[in-house]
Amino acid sequence: MFSEFLVNTWITASVVAVVAGLVGFFVVLRGSSFLAHALPHGAFAGAAGATLIGIDPILGMGIFAVGGALAVSTLGRRGRNDVVIALSLVVMLAFGALFLSLGNQYSAEVFALLFGQILGVSSAEVLPIVLLGVLCVAAVVVAYRPLLLASVLPDQAAARGISGFGMSVFFALVVAVATTLSVPIVGALLMFSLLVGPPAAARLVSPDPLRAIPLSIGLALVTVWVSIAAAYETSLPVGFFVTAISALLYGLGRGWFTISSRRRTVGLEGAKW
């Protein structure tokens, strides 16, 4: 499990978890789960296209994910955002299927792109993934206050001169970067579970961002670490375990929230008497 050939996986998966926990908090806060579902398909198409022409898949993933983020942000401003995201999703997935068909890729490679692979990260990909992770975290930290205000109180943010459209574009690009570095580990079809499950569970436990964000990152780290260990022992895709654990965490978070709400209600009723 801790063999030398898995070092790349542990390093990159930890980076992915930190980014997913941080960015995912804002995904849940802004109600952007559909966007987090769509952009990995763009990254998948980019990786397939890059493989077809013989360039670094990370570069292809980045180009398509960023392009998808800009398209969704720009077109969604003038029409229904959900329609734009849905159409972007199917178009990018269709391009991915086309590129794979043209390249006659082996089924194992396709499987790894879609569902993740613990051995899918080469030594050459570690540094780009780490650098993208640092860039993503730095961008969120720098824009934390305006992004939080625009997400929670958009009218007040506009009154303070914070552009709602600008924040939407910025956040879509951040999600695109997070997607790019995550696809090799988790897979295009299941990446959004890591961006939604642990952060949603953390928000149910605590509505305070200063508590929920560290908890979200911690839950995401536990999710990927347990998933890697389970995938290694069972030879099943790591994306399956990431999704299952993310769903379990959300269920536990929902249970915590329900119990806490009932206790507060009982406490208030007791205070009245």
Account of the protein in words:
The chain has 273 residues and is mainly α. The protein has a single domain, classed as ABC transporter involved in vitamin B12 uptake, BtuC (Orthogonal Bundle). Helices cover 85% and strands 0% of the residues. It is globular, with a radius of gyration of 19 Å. The mean pLDDT is 81.
Task: Tag the structure with descriptive keywords.
ABC transporter involved in vitamin B12 uptake, BtuC; 273 residues; mainly alpha; 12 helices; globular
Summarize the structure in short.
It contains 12 helices and no strands. It has 273 residues and is an all-alpha fold.
Q: What is the element layout, followed by pairings?
A:
Layout: H1 7-29, H2 33-53, H3 57-78, H4 81-103, H5 107-115, H6 123-142, H7 144-152, H8 154-159, H9 164-186, H10 191-205, H11 209-234, H12 238-272
Helix pairs in contact: 1-6, 1-9, 1-10, 1-11, 2-3, 2-4, 2-9, 2-10, 3-4, 3-9, 5-9, 6-9, 10-11, 10-12, 11-12
Query: Can you identify the CATH superfamily?
Result: ABC transporter involved in vitamin B12 uptake, BtuC
Query: On the 0-100 scale, what is the average pLDDT?
Result: 81
Low-pLDDT stretches: none
**How large a portion of the residues is in β-strands, by DSSP E?**
under 5%
Counted beta strands? 0
Please identify the structural class as seen in this structure: mainly alpha
Query: Shape from CA axes?
Result: globular
Give the domain tally.
1
SS field, number of helical segments: 12
CATH topology: ABC transporter involved in vitamin B12 uptake, BtuC
Helix content: over 70%
The top level CATH class name: Mainly Alpha
Give me the CATH architecture, please: Orthogonal Bundle
String of helices and strands: HHHHHHHHHHHH
Rg computed from alpha carbons, rounded to a whole number of angstroms: 19 Å
Largest sheet data? none
